[in-house]
Amino acid sequence: MNEKHLFIETFGCQMNVNDSERIVTMLADLGYRPTTVPADADMILLNTCSVRGGAEEKVYKRLSHYRSLKKAHSGLILGVGGCVAQQEGDHLLQKFPFLDLVFGTHNLHLLPDMVRGAEKGERRCETAFIDNDQRLDLFPPVKGASRLSRFVTVMQGCDNFCSYCIVPYVRGREISRRAADILDEVRQLADEGVQEVVLLGQNVNSYGLKSANEPTFAQLIRQVAGVEGIRRIRFTTSHPKDMSDELIACFADVPKLCGQVHLPAQSGSDVVLSRMNRGYARAAYLDRIRALKAARPGIAITGDMIVGFPGESEADFEQTLTLMEEVRYADLFLFVYSARPGTKAAELPEELSREQKVERLERLLALQRRITLEINRSYLGTLQELLVEGEGKRPGQVSGKAESGRIVNFPGDPALIGSFVTVRIVAAYQNSLLGELARNP
Ligand code: SF4
């Protein structure tokens, strides 16, 4: 088989990153090897995201750019997958006559067949949603990605219908994979030398709730912790309303579960939360945060916040600021609200100008920068166990991730990559820590 090259450009969340890894694995069987240079590619795929505004325009721009490569390499196959493909479907093939493939979020399994057709000049679009029963068997394993830490998809889709979010429309209804399949995949990864697994899904903590035959997410974590060779477990993303006491207890008594949790609040105001259809109030969110901090003192909490949601008053906005002070997020992903066509929130009147939203965003950013730096400084002098994952920021340094998810650079031999080491934190910056080796692995 001739070796051919595949370039994938991935937008959006970790689900898309994981799907791209799956695509690379599937297309390796057809002779495609990944490349990081688009001009060397025989196939270019865009794995798209439509969660934030302007996604379609971004994809259209990229397609126009890649068109010039197609002029130089007439056999080049060009495809679009992911959420924008799901939304736009056949319309993309009509709009871009040089585009060969469009595949939706439920159609990855069809890709090898679509590529074989495209190699013969066929153009094809597949965006039909698949029944949940059939979808259970459509999670081909990922091979050859990072050796140390891997994503393991445990569920997909979402039933929550937050009023601003496009995910339930482009990813479909929520489905939990069989625990037996997940554990098989984790055991296989452990056999390959993987040390950390990140359990992945749009809303992992509702895992298994719709199926009497599957464990709860907390039970699943305990089963994954029982797999020999796996030393660290993380998960993302969680919904506050499904953060059960049973799951929080795992932070107290499952040592392999890292002390880090991503729990998006989205707003600190009850009025806005209700308009967002988030299904919890500020007090309930803070109750979950308190329980997490009690279960694992020092737990690093990260989150997402939307600023400028329709109808957000200055008083609502100030509620978000005070929530941030109370939670003390280690890191926060901040977004200016922009309407996604097709969602309920897109029908709400917007009263804030772009400038007003950006001004509020700046205030949130300033506050979060201060809190993050204070938290980073609290690690000074402490010992941290790191999984060393690669080269450091500066020559002579290597870099690893602490249990909290913090990136720590330290002077060290690249031979340490892949091992666990203990370092003492000697300096704290905005986005990373500096350590020095305290003990060899
Ligand atoms: S929980 Fe809400 S924000 Fe998250 S994916 Fe589901 S609908 Fe979107």
TrEMBL record:
<keyword id="KW-0411">Iron-sulfur</keyword>
<dbReference type="Pfam" id="PF00919">
    <property type="entry name" value="UPF0004"/>
</dbReference>
<keyword id="KW-0949">S-adenosyl-L-methionine</keyword>
<dbReference type="InterPro" id="IPR007197">
    <property type="entry name" value="rSAM"/>
</dbReference>
<dbReference type="Pfam" id="PF04055">
    <property type="entry name" value="Radical_SAM"/>
</dbReference>
<dbReference type="InterPro" id="IPR006463">
    <property type="entry name" value="MiaB_methiolase"/>
</dbReference>
<dbReference type="InterPro" id="IPR006638">
    <property type="entry name" value="Elp3/MiaA/NifB-like_rSAM"/>
</dbReference>
<feature type="binding site">
    <location>
        <position position="165"/>
    </location>
    <ligand>
        <name>[4Fe-4S] cluster 2</name>
    </ligand>
</feature>
<dbReference type="GO" id="GO:0051539">
    <property type="term" value="F:4 iron, 4 sulfur cluster binding"/>
</dbReference>
<protein>
    <recommendedName>
        <fullName>tRNA-2-methylthio-N(6)-dimethylallyladenosine synthase</fullName>
        <ecNumber>2.8.4.3</ecNumber>
    </recommendedName>
</protein>
<keyword id="KW-0963">Cytoplasm</keyword>
<dbReference type="GO" id="GO:0046872">
    <property type="term" value="F:metal ion binding"/>
</dbReference>
<feature type="binding site">
    <location>
        <position position="162"/>
    </location>
    <ligand>
        <name>[4Fe-4S] cluster 2</name>
    </ligand>
</feature>
<keyword id="KW-0819">tRNA processing</keyword>
<dbReference type="GO" id="GO:0005829">
    <property type="term" value="C:cytosol"/>
</dbReference>
<feature type="domain" description="MTTase N-terminal">
    <location>
        <begin position="4"/>
        <end position="120"/>
    </location>
</feature>
<dbReference type="InterPro" id="IPR020612">
    <property type="entry name" value="Methylthiotransferase_CS"/>
</dbReference>
<feature type="domain" description="Radical SAM core">
    <location>
        <begin position="144"/>
        <end position="374"/>
    </location>
</feature>
<feature type="binding site">
    <location>
        <position position="83"/>
    </location>
    <ligand>
        <name>[4Fe-4S] cluster 1</name>
    </ligand>
</feature>
<dbReference type="InterPro" id="IPR023404">
    <property type="entry name" value="rSAM_horseshoe"/>
</dbReference>
<dbReference type="InterPro" id="IPR038135">
    <property type="entry name" value="Methylthiotransferase_N_sf"/>
</dbReference>
<feature type="binding site">
    <location>
        <position position="158"/>
    </location>
    <ligand>
        <name>[4Fe-4S] cluster 2</name>
    </ligand>
</feature>
<keyword id="KW-0408">Iron</keyword>
<dbReference type="InterPro" id="IPR002792">
    <property type="entry name" value="TRAM_dom"/>
</dbReference>
<comment type="subunit">
    <text>Monomer.</text>
</comment>
<keyword id="KW-0479">Metal-binding</keyword>
<comment type="similarity">
    <text>Belongs to the methylthiotransferase family. MiaB subfamily.</text>
</comment>
<dbReference type="Pfam" id="PF01938">
    <property type="entry name" value="TRAM"/>
</dbReference>
<feature type="domain" description="TRAM">
    <location>
        <begin position="377"/>
        <end position="439"/>
    </location>
</feature>
<keyword id="KW-0808">Transferase</keyword>
<dbReference type="InterPro" id="IPR005839">
    <property type="entry name" value="Methylthiotransferase"/>
</dbReference>
<feature type="binding site">
    <location>
        <position position="13"/>
    </location>
    <ligand>
        <name>[4Fe-4S] cluster 1</name>
    </ligand>
</feature>
<feature type="binding site">
    <location>
        <position position="49"/>
    </location>
    <ligand>
        <name>[4Fe-4S] cluster 1</name>
    </ligand>
</feature>
<comment type="function">
    <text>Catalyzes the methylthiolation of N6-(dimethylallyl)adenosine (i(6)A), leading to the formation of 2-methylthio-N6-(dimethylallyl)adenosine (ms(2)i(6)A) at position 37 in tRNAs that read codons beginning with uridine.</text>
</comment>
<keyword id="KW-0004">4Fe-4S</keyword>
<dbReference type="InterPro" id="IPR058240">
    <property type="entry name" value="rSAM_sf"/>
</dbReference>
<dbReference type="InterPro" id="IPR013848">
    <property type="entry name" value="Methylthiotransferase_N"/>
</dbReference>
<dbReference type="GO" id="GO:0035597">
    <property type="term" value="F:tRNA-2-methylthio-N(6)-dimethylallyladenosine(37) synthase activity"/>
</dbReference>
